[in-house]
Amino acid sequence: MSQSSGSTVRSSLVVALGGFLLGFDSAVVSGVMDPVKRTFDLNSDQVGFTASCLILGAMIGNAVAGPLANRFGRRAILIATALLFTVSAAWSGLATSFWTLVIARVIGGLGVGAAILIAPIYIAEIAPHASRGRLVSFNQLNIVIGISAAFFSNFFINDAFDSAVAWRWMLGVEAVPAFLYFVLLFSVPCSPRWLLSVGRRGEAEDAISRLGGDAADIADRKSTRLNSSHA
Question: pTM value?
Answer without folding.
Answer: 0.87
